[in-house]
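notes to self, project folder thing:

trying the whole complex as one job this time. last attempt i did each chain seperately and stitching them together was a nightmare. two parts in total, labels are on each line so i dont mix them up again. if this works i'll redo the older ones the same way
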Amino acid sequence: MSLEVRYPSGQFRSELPSNVKSNRTDSSSGKFFKALVKIILTIGAIIMIIPIIVIVFCLGVLLIFSLGVTIPILKVMGTGTIFLTGFTIMNNKGISKKYTPLLVFLLIFSALFLAGQYDVQSLNCPLHTNYNQMMPTLQFFVSIIGFLGFFYNGFILIKKSRK
Amino acid sequence: MEETRPKLVKFIGIVELLRSIYSIIGGIMGVGILSLFFGSQFGLGFLGVFGAYLLKGINIIIGIVGFIGAIALIRFKPIGRKLVIFVASAMIILSFIQLVSIFISGRIFGSLILSLLIIFPIIYYAAMIFYLMSSEVKDAFGIS
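result (full assembly):
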């Protein structure tokens, strides 16, 4: 029975010269640890993904079953996208396509953050989130963002049509 | 020297990217990956409200660094490896703080699963550091 296990790729480089007898044990133990590390990383990464999948699933369930309540959030996303796209195009910057999703994401969360009514304790499984409390503030943000978005879009269209 | 790009590095990068996004969102919303793993951060007594908010803040900062690092790691940029090692070290320290705090509060004796869940990220991130510092990954990143 030999403890030497051959692994197809990757070997640890030892500082000792290869002809030293003790190096053989170091190398095999190194290989063993490396295999162990790879197994831990693979299993650990899968375990790490599980809570993220659970949260995504819960958010999906939340969005589907309370679509009526979450429509203002979708409004924020839509109008925010219109506003930011319009604004970036107006300034002739090529970042519109690249950074708009990120900016929208930041916008939504800053809006939610500023709303200050977000039920922060409910994300263990966010099925119990009560969005009703933040609706007035969100509506206010939606109105402002929508107004600015349509204003800038209209402004661009007028400018382009004149050219 | 043949330049190999291990798939495990990419896999770790993707997982780290997802985890960091979750950490940022969760941190803003009041929870974090740590609290999901280790139970509620609130009501620990040892940390108190300030400690819980401090942990949340640190979670967000680490999440942002992890996000940048993970993207760089997926693209096999050398800075990504360094950033992810930094994030992994920070996560080990945070996990250790959680472990100590829960141990002091005496709740660790109540649940074996909880204690195992606390130790798991320490092992995972230690393995990640070990792997990212191995010669295989260094070669892939072009570091001699």
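what i see at first glance: Residues 7-140 of chain B form one domain.
need to look closer tmrw
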